[in-house]
Write the structure tokens for this entry.
Amino acid sequence: MRLQIVFILMLFLQAWKPAVSQAAAPELPDSRGVLQRLADRAGEAKAKIKSFGETMFAYAGAYYEDHIQPVAGSYVEWASNLRSSLWEKVQTAIDNYMPPTE
């Protein structure tokens, strides 16, 4: 039984080998090395990520200008006015300070 299987496999391999050798080798459209192709793909991925980041930064800037800045601007102005008012009070107190006389 084993001998028959080995014989059949040998016949199959002999018939298959010429068929494989007659098939034309596939032409590679790009004969560059694997590392070069990987480097090219990495560069393309980097460009896509950079483009996506620039787009997201632009959307974030527009959102800030439309929604955050109008609200935050009034708080910044209020804090600035409060600081100025307190500083004026401190300056007035220093200018009007009279040391105690003994």
